[in-house]
Write a structure and sequence with these properties.
Helices cover 39% and strands 15% of the residues. It folds into 3 domains: 34 residues, no CATH class; 61 residues, Orthogonal Bundle (Topoisomerase I, domain 2), CATH 1.10.460.10; 40 residues, no CATH class. The N terminus is likely disordered. The protein is of the alpha+beta class and 160 residues long.
Length: 160
């Protein structure tokens, strides 16, 4: 078996392979010019947006009038349990998972049902129901009409 390797400090690239096991299995071979090569290295870690702690999420939920004090912790537990976010081990911040990002992108196609404003308005209507100022069936029929007015759901590859 003949092979040629280019070795530079901690990088090894296979540039040629003939005979031997390569007749059965194809290796990844790199086309690297001979001589000195100028290499630019850049590193990129994560997102430019700041990750949120539990307290940050609850604060934003309060500011945006989403949920109730009794439901804040339950909402966060649900996000963790279903795998939409994970908690980092070092700093106790919440990190969105691929599943969470896909769910967000999918639900963002229906702002008339899942926007912050709609959620806040629904919570307001629930308060009115509890005070006896609004009939619950009226709210349910309105919600049903909104769902029925949607166009067919777009197809997506993975169940969210």
């Amino acid at each position: 078996m003949r092979s040629a390797w280019i070795i530079r400090s901690d990088v090894e690239l296979l540039t040629e392979m003939r005979d031997g096991f390569s007749k059965v299995y194809s290796y990844r071979v790199y086309a690297v010019p001979e001589g000195r090569v100028k290499v630019e290295v850049s590193t990129y870690r994560g997102s430019s947006s700041r990750l949120l702690t539990y307290a940050d999420v609850i604060k934003q939920m309060k500011e945006r009038r989403i949920g109730r004090p009794s439901t804040y912790a339950k909402t966060l537990q649900t996000l963790l349990r279903h795998g939409y976010v994970v908690e980092s081990k070092r700093k106790a911040v919440l990190i969105a998972t691929k599943k969470g990002i896909e769910a967000y992108n999918f639900l963002s196609k229906f702002p008339e049902l899942v926007s912050e404003e709609v959620t806040a308005e629904l919570l307001n209507r629930m308060d009115m129901i509890s005070l006896g100022n609004l009939e619950g069936t009226e709210v349910l029929l309105d919600l049903l009409a909104q769902v029925e007015s949607l166009e067919a759901l777009p197809e997506f590859k993975q169940e969210i």
